[in-house]
Design a protein that fits this description.
With 411 residues, the chain is an alpha/beta fold. It folds into two domains: 4-247, 3-Layer(aba) Sandwich (Peroxisomal Thiolase, Chain A, domain 1), CATH 3.40.47; 262-408, Peroxisomal Thiolase, Chain A, domain 1. Helices cover 34% and strands 18% of the residues. The strands form three sheets. A ten-stranded mixed β-sheet has the order 5-4-6-7-1-8-14-13-9-10, with helices on both faces. It has a two-stranded antiparallel ribbon with strand order 2-3. The protein has a two-stranded antiparallel sheet with strand order 11-12. β13 and β14 (401-408) form a beta hairpin. The longest helix has 17 residues, at 71-87. The chain starts with a strand and ends with a strand.
Length: 411
């Protein structure tokens, strides 16, 4: 089995359109939640979201290509490009067949779907874009990354709701461990910022309704949390076999050592009470990594800011880590960037890698009133310097999909 290392990072988030900017703002507790600007939210009960700001696809691809992509694919191409450049990876005819792409999503091109359905009903069938299917289809983020960078190895995409980004890392890890490829460009992306999506989540009762106070709407593990904040963005890692990375003299951030994937078999949107499915994913990730519970330093939590998730994740962590759970440092990027759905785990993975690199744990902001049922160390409101040798990124999705990925200091 090959060791797998992280050599490149990319991120587009509501608090920064590059991995370094995202990290700087995450550590400084910058909030990315505002009133929605992508459309007029006035008719909606929920009028706030965590939008990506100032993104120009033409900075990452030519205008013609950008016009034929939904925003979720544009994000994928942009973050993949950043990660490839960060890794110093040159893709050539000689190595392209040994490089693969795994870029996942939760919903694909939902705004494109909404727009073209309206075109059909309000205009005519002839006004439906001929590019509708290749813009909307969930596999197109991965395919567009392959096309943009000339990647000829496996091109894969899974739809795994809010666990999609982490699922990409774990699936890529397995392919690399088996030696099927030398490099995987791996990540998750989501850009479903349209009125139908926001209305649907709002009607489920899943979203925070703090329209008058968006900066404090996302408050994971806080007693007064009232739902998650819908967001958009993407995250990417360049993953390589250790041999390949060392042979080309790559800078290595850390090692991806294991992952766990489980199902709840319980409910379409609610987590299993007690977090048993999430606990099994974390336990499996530890076992696959060859680690003991007391080895863990930091968990980048799923931490959605919903009443059910935060309690079940806390219970799951305590189930897996026992007494060590109270020595762990746990924080949720969603307190600043909202819930990026299919990109959530990917961005959490980027944060996990950078926590190891910089020896800093980002905070959980808006943690003002501790919930007695959420009684771990959530690094409230202020970042903390700490030696992080091993970190875990959690991501749990609708339908009961649970994924945990473990990163380790490279030695």
């Amino acid at each position: 089995m090959h060791r797998v290392v992280v050599t490149g990072l990319g991120a587009i988030t509501p608090i920064g359109n590059s991995a370094p900017t995202f990290w700087e703002n995450l550590v400084n507790g910058v909030n990315g939640v505002t009133r929605i600007t992508a459309f007029d939210p006035e008719p909606l009960e929920v009028q706030i979201a965590a939008e990506v700001k100032g993104f120009d696809p033409k900075e990452h691809m030519d205008f013609k290509a950008a016009r034929r992509m939904d925003r979720f694919s544009q994000f994928a191409v942009a973050t993949a490009g950043e990660a490839i450049n960060d890794a110093g990876l040159e893709i050539t005819e000689d190595n392209a067949e040994n490089i693969g792409v795994m870029f996942n999503t939760g919903g694909g091109g939902i705004p494109t779907l909404t727009r073209e359905v309206l075109n059909y009903h309000q205009k005519s069938p002839s006004r439906v874009s001929p590019f509708f299917i290749p813009m909307f289809a969930s596999n197109m983020a991965a395919c567009q990354v392959s096309i943009r960078f000339g990647i000829l190895g496996p091109v894969q995409a899974s739809v795994a709701a809010c666990a999609a980004g982490n699922q990409a890392f774990v699936d890529s890890l397995r392919m690399l461990q088996l030696g099927e490829v030398d490099v995987m460009i791996s990540g998750g992306t989501e850009a479903a910022m349209d009125p139908v999506s926001v209305a649907a989540f709002g009607n489920m009762g899943a979203l925070s309704k703090r329209n008058d106070d968006p900066a404090h709407a996302s408050r994971p593990f806080d007693r007064d949390r009232d739902g998650f904040v819908f967001g958009e963005g993407a995250g990417a890692l360049v993953l390589e076999t250790e041999e390949h990375a060392k042979k080309r003299g790559a800078r290595i951030y850390c090692e991806l050592v294991g992952g766990g994937v489980t199902g709840d078999a319980f409910h379409i949107s609610a987590p299993l009470p007690g977090g048993a499915g999430a606990a099994r994913a974390m336990s499996m990730a530890l076992k696959n990594s060859g680690l003991n519970p007391e080895d863990m330093d930091y968990i980048s939590a799923h931490g959605t800011s919903t009443p059910l998730n935060d309690v079940s994740e806390t219970e799951a962590i305590k189930t897996v880590f026992g007494d060590h759970a109270y020595k762990l440092q746990v924080s949720s990027p969603k307190s600043m960037i909202g819930h990026l759905v299919g990109a959530a785990g990917a961005v959490g993975g980027v944060a996990s890698v950078l926590a190891i690199k910089h020896g800093v744990i980002p905070p959980t902001i808006n943690h003002d009133e501790p919930d007695p049922e959420c009684d771990l160390d959530y690094v409230p409101n202020t970042a903390r310097e700490a030696k992080v040798r091993i970190s875990m990124a959690n991501a749990f999705g609708f339908g009961g999909q649970n994924v945990a990925a473990v990163f380790k200091e490279y030695v």
